[in-house]
Design a protein that fits this description.
Layout (H helix, E strand, L loop, with lengths): L1 E5 L3 H12 L3 E6 L2 H10 L3 E4 L5 H6 L7 E4 L7 H13 L3 E5 L8 H9 L4 E3 L1 H14 L6 E4 L4 E7 L11 H10 L4 E8 L2 E3 L12 E7 L3 H8 L8 E5 L3 H10 L5 E6 L2 H10 L5 E4 L5 H6 L7 E4 L4 H13 L4 E5 L3 H9 L4 E3 L1 H10 L7 E6 L6 E6 L20 E8 L2 E4 L11 E6 L4 H6 L4
Parallel strand pairs: 1-2, 1-4, 2-3, 4-5, 5-6, 12-13, 12-15, 13-14, 15-16, 16-17
Antiparallel strand pairs: 7-8, 8-11, 9-10, 9-11, 18-19, 19-22, 20-21, 20-22
Length: 453
């Protein structure tokens, strides 16, 4: 697949690395030679230096024959991305997607307008991150979760601590115990020492493992007990950081929660937020890393603390402080991928990385077209995909145990009409099923072939 990426900033560089690993032919365009030099050290890509709105530059980058064009130029002026995307479509790029920073463009009627201009997908990373945090706060488990089919199947990540009943138990032993208690689930992955593994029946659960499971909605609560996690209902949220994400998050939460407070160190930004946000949202000026300040702001009365400043270090540290002061649920935005594991080790419950979330949205465009959803969850380098099964595709030919499905991938659950089921070896996938797949990056292309007609 030939892909042209405009912009060698953080999002563009990560996307180039991910797509290059999938075997695609990538060309990156940027005006800044230093950014281009850095992206070459990260991924096997070609580069073209020049303006992304120059037709000659776009031609040199191979846009006329591109299967996918992605405009993620790292500039506050979103018009650069929009203009380059429109030019790319008219030059012959098959699919075009563009980064924006204006929520208004995502209105239904405006999306139709942009689609008429040839832009198939617009994405607003900060809005995507805010929406992801909102979704995470809906779940009662103190971990990252993901819904399929309006929650009929749920993927949840659990950290094994001292309280867990599963320590040193094998997956086979836990499966037998769960069956005795009529709990339907599947352990789909374990992250251990920065490595993600697809568990076998003889795999043991160890201290500090991050275990990813899929279960029916009613199965999550009993799983939480086995994993030693407590139920946390979120009704009061404190947000540290008046960033774009913080502002969007506050707007998203204020009608869902009884109390939303946003704090920021910048007094001028606090004044701006107090004028822009609904009156019911409290705005306070101060440092969220300072325990005395948080105590004065009644931190103990809040169910969740979300840190979305522009500093990863600040976000991690403030979540650690909030936890020590009694907050049950903490969420931190961490953009440096190398810091994600550090944040989890320090006790941050959920880590949000807008590069990974955004990359998942774009990555879907490189698959067969049957992938309805692609997502990354914190703590693992694996990808979660949801496929709609086409009649006659290879996945329908045999029961799962006989399919020779890629070793580093696993089918966790199936939605068939109004029925939801946990996938096992004897499961026979049928046409039009919706299938939840968990796969390590190297296996995604092989997985995709099973769903092609």
């Amino acid at each position: 697949m030939r892909i042209v990426i405009v912009g060698a900033g953080e999002v563009g560089s990560h996307l180039a690395k991910m797509l290059a690993n999938e075997g695609s032919e990538i060309t990156v365009v940027d005006k800044d030679p230093q950014r281009l030099a850095r992206v070459v050290t990260l991924a096997d890509v070609a580069t073209v230096q020049g303006s992304p709105t120059s037709i000659s530059v776009l031609r040199e980058a191979g846009v006329p024959g591109a299967d996918l064009f992605v405009a993620v130029y790292p500039a506050m002026i979103q018009e650069i991305n929009i203009v380059s995307a429109i030019l790319a479509k008219n030059l012959g790029a098959k699919k075009v997607t563009v980064r924006i920073n204006e929520e208004e463009y995502l209105n239904a009627e405006n999306k139709v307008l942009f689609k008429e201009m040839g832009i198939e997908l617009m994405f607003y990373p900060e809005k995507i991150a805010a929406d992801e945090i909102t979704d995470q706060l809906k779940h009662s488990a103190g971990s990252e979760s993901l819904d399929f089919a309006h929650g009929r199947l749920q993927i949840a990540a659990f950290k094994l601590e001292d309280e867990s009943q599963l320590l040193d138990m094998t997956l086979a032993e836990f499966a037998a115990l769960a069956q005795e208690n009529d709990i339907q689930f599947r352990a789909i992955a374990i992250t251990r020492n920065d490595q993600t593994i697809i568990p076998k029946y003889d795999t043991k659960f160890l201290y500090h493992d991050l275990v990813f499971t899929i279960a029916k909605r009613e199965g999550i609560a009993p799983l939480m007990e086995y994993f030693g996690c407590k139920k946390v209902e979120i009704d009061k949220v404190m947000i540290y950081g008046g960033s774009e994400i913080g502002e969007l998050l506050a707007k998203s939460l204020y009608q869902k929660m009884s109390n939303v407070k946003i704090i920021d160190k910048d007094k001028a930004r606090c004044i701006e937020l107090s004028e822009k946000l609904p009156e019911s949202i409290l705005v306070s000026n101060g440092d969220g890393r300072n325990s005395d300040f948080l105590i004065d702001e009644s931190i103990k009365d809040y169910d969740a603390f979300v840190a979305v400043t522009d500093s990863d270090e600040t976000n991690i540290l403030s979540c650690v402080v909030a936890h020590k002061l009694g907050v049950n649920r903490t969420i931190a935005e961490v953009e440096n991928i190398e810091y994600i594991h550090l944040a989890e080790e320090m006790g941050v419950d959920t880590v949000i990385n807008k590069k990974l979330i955004t990359a998942g949205r774009i990555f879907k465009f490189t698959l067969s077209g049957k992938a309805r959803f692609v997502k990354y969850m914190g703590g693992t380098d694996a990808e979660i995909l949801e496929y709609t099964v086409s009649p006659g595709s290879p996945i329908t030919k045999k029961p799962l145990k006989d399919l020779n499905f890629p070793e580093n991938a696993i089918i966790g659950g199936v939605i068939r009409g109004s029925e939801s089921m946990i996938a096992v070896g004897d499961t026979q996938i049928e046409a039009y099923d919706r299938v939840a797949v968990f796969a390590l990056p190297a296996s995604v292309s092989a997985v995709d072939k099973f769903f092609r007609e």
